[in-house]
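Dear colleagues,

As part of the handover before I leave the project, I'm documenting each prediction I ran so the next person doesn't have to rerun anything. This entry is a single chain, and its sequence is reproduced below.
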Amino acid sequence: MSPGQTSWIGADPGGRGNFGIAILTGDEEPQTASVDCADEALDFVRAHVHHTPVGVGVDAPLWWSSGPSGDRHADQWLRHTYGLSGGQVQAANSLRGAALIQGAMFVQRIREAYPGVQVTESHPTALLNALMGNDWATFSARFHVNAMPRNQHERDAIIAAVAAREAFTGNWTHDLGKTRLAGEQDPGQYWLAPVYYYWPEP
């Protein structure tokens, strides 16, 4: 990539070999990898992006709740609005630690490398099921993504990068973090702030 190009980053945090990372740049085919941790994901970004990305999408809960199950209003809204199950949109307490810890650490690390980069949470599984009938071909055609992902982690990272692109170009303006339950952190003011959770208008 040459300087001056515009890029969006997507991350699907996980454990060893299961941390998907994707870079979208213009109409180019996304660059993807499956790595072991947030530091390796950042190394991949630094090796391929020689400018500050416009935005980052992360498939992990980026703010938390002290209420029952660690559930958040955003998660409840997605289940209710689209008829999604608790397995498709899990409460935070049900998630593996790799998603929670590596997700937050990736946001911290990428902001250390690219100060001020904008970050939105994303939920690729929910997005595909709610709006695309769980069909990658439909998603890739709608959002002009020229890629056939090698695995689910890289697929979800690409979707997260698309969410960042759509959010920070103003195409998606519905921020699910604006409405919260009493026990939730404020994603605009807590230690990882600011983060958002942009979603297509229902």
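The chain has a mean pLDDT of 93. The domain at 7-199 is CATH 3.30.420 (Nucleotidyltransferase; domain 5).

All the best with the project,
I.
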